[in-house]
Amino acid sequence: MKKNIAVIFGDGIGPEVTQQSINVLNAVAKNFSHEFNYSYNLMGAIAIDKTGNPLPDETIEACLNSDAVLFGAIGDPKYDNDPAATVRPEQGLLKLRQRLQLYANIRPVATYASLQHLSPLKAKNSEGTDFVIYRELTGGIYFGKKELSADKTQAIDECVYTEQEIERVAHLAFQHAARRRKKLTLVDKANVLETSRLWRKVVQELAQQYHDVTVDYMFVDNAAMQIIMNPKQFDVILTENMFGDIISDEASVIAGSLGLLPSASVGNSAALFEPIHGSYPQAAGKDIANPLGSILSAAMMLDYFKLNAEADLVREAVDWTLKHNFVTKDIDPVNFYLTTTIGELIVEYVSNKVPGDIHQSNVELRKSTII
Ligand code: IPM
Ligand code: MG
After folding, report:
1. 230 in helix, strand or coil?
2. Annotated active-site positions, please?
3. Residue identifier of the C-alpha nearest atom 10 of ligand 1
4. Other CB atoms within 10 Å distance of the CB of residue 279
5. 154: CB partners within 8 A, 6+ apart
6. Is residue 135 in some structural domain?
7. Neighbouring residues of 312: CB distance < 8 A, sequence distance ≥ 6
8. What spacing in Å lies between the alpha carbon of 356 and ligand 1's midpoint?
9. Which residue among 43, 90, 109 has the greatest number of ligand 1 atoms within 8 angstroms of its CB, and so is best to mutate?
10. Do residues 129 and 219 share a domain?
């Protein structure tokens, strides 16, 4: 299979983690006789520095002309701390989501036994957590009218949803629930918000087409509590843009490390894959960032290409590194491995050079590289 991938390294640790994903994709291509071609594009603070624009037109073009986008991270503290900045790195990502019509953001949340000790939740509550968040990504308050009064004492952010915007993401969430444990939870604030009442109506109507999926409804404040108290109750969560932003960060800590979680943002004709962590500027260039969030995002990209065996192999490689304590500093601050070493191990696993648990000596050999 031949695929063209638009790479956007972005800011902070974006370049170094994304490079590991490219190495892993290249190993997959070699092993399974695929051809992946890459174009390299600017977005974020780095794009502002180089061109004055967080999302240059050439980047939009390259993404529109590719089969998928592999993205690193966005953001730079020099903009976060300046509320008066009119150009911000994040504008690039929001505009790209809109231009590519990436209306569904998919964030799987699952726990790993070997990382349980890092979870802020008690083992009995978090073990076996396995759910997926479907966050609407191109509507709602993020993209509504924004106004600041002339005297700058009043501000407005409008939240607008149409039935059609709700339907298209809801269909994807229902379809995924039907392939999983067949439970969909709509998270909203229908006791207060008109938009939430529209979400409920549309989802209730769609539910008739998905007889085998059980639907329940939860107010977002309660959901925020339930995700911590009993995350195992969830299978597929469907929610609007802003609620999804908030609860997906909340859910991300259950696994024990933010560095591990991947995401996919899909539309009808484009898809973008990125780790859910931010640009982590303090770690940039130090070779200490966790590349697994990016590598698992690349695995989601392989699934999107319908290369499911290849995607499973990458996930198996990731599980193998975690099981053998080949982990980065965020997971073990004492005995840790570098970003590049973890990437190399996964490349080797994918290339069949690490034949699983049977060659314990191979594993021990690698352990001698402890820094
Ligand atoms: C995310 C991020 C973005 C968002 C920011 C960087 C604009 O938090 O992808 O969740 O709010 O959507
Ligand atoms: Mg967010």
Report:
1. coil
2. 142, 189, 221, 245, 249
3. 245
4. 23
5. 148
6. yes
7. none
8. 37
9. 90
10. yes
Phi, psi of 171 (to 5 degrees): -55, -45
With tokens 């004709």, the residue in question is 269
Q: Report the residue count for the chain.
A: 371
Calpha distance 189→211 (Å, rounded):
25
44: left (phi over 0), alpha (psi -120 to 50) or beta: left
pLDDT tens per residue, range 319-346: 999 999 999 999 999 999 999 999 999 9
Q: What residues sit around ligand 2, an ion, with C-beta below 5 angstroms? A: 245
Q: What is the CATH number of the domain that holds 270?
A: 3.40.718.10
* Burial class of residue 256, CB neighbours in 10 A (0-12, 13-18, 19+): buried
Q: State which of 245, 274, 276 you would mutate to test the pocket of ligand 1, scoring each by most atoms of that ligand within 8 A of its C-beta.
A: 245
Structure tokens at 114: 């070997």
pLDDT digits (tens, 9 = 90+) for 50-76: 999 999 999 999 999 999 999 999 999
Q: Is the pTM of this model over 0.85?
A: yes
Whether 246 and 283 map to the same domain: the answer is no
| CA separation for the pair 362, 348 (Å, rounded) | 11
Selection from 325, 314, 328, 317 nearest residue 355 by Cα: 317
Separation of alpha carbons 167 and 199, rounded Å: 9
- Residue 354 to residue 124: CA distance in whole angstroms: 33
* Shared-domain flag, residues 262 and 371: yes
> Do 194 and 217 share a domain, yes or no?
yes
Phi first, then psi: give them for residue 339, nearest 5 degrees.
-50, -50
Counting residues of the chain whose pLDDT is more than 70, the rounded percentage is 95
The residue whose CA is least distant from atom 8 of ligand 1 is 245
Residue found under tokens 């390294």? 9
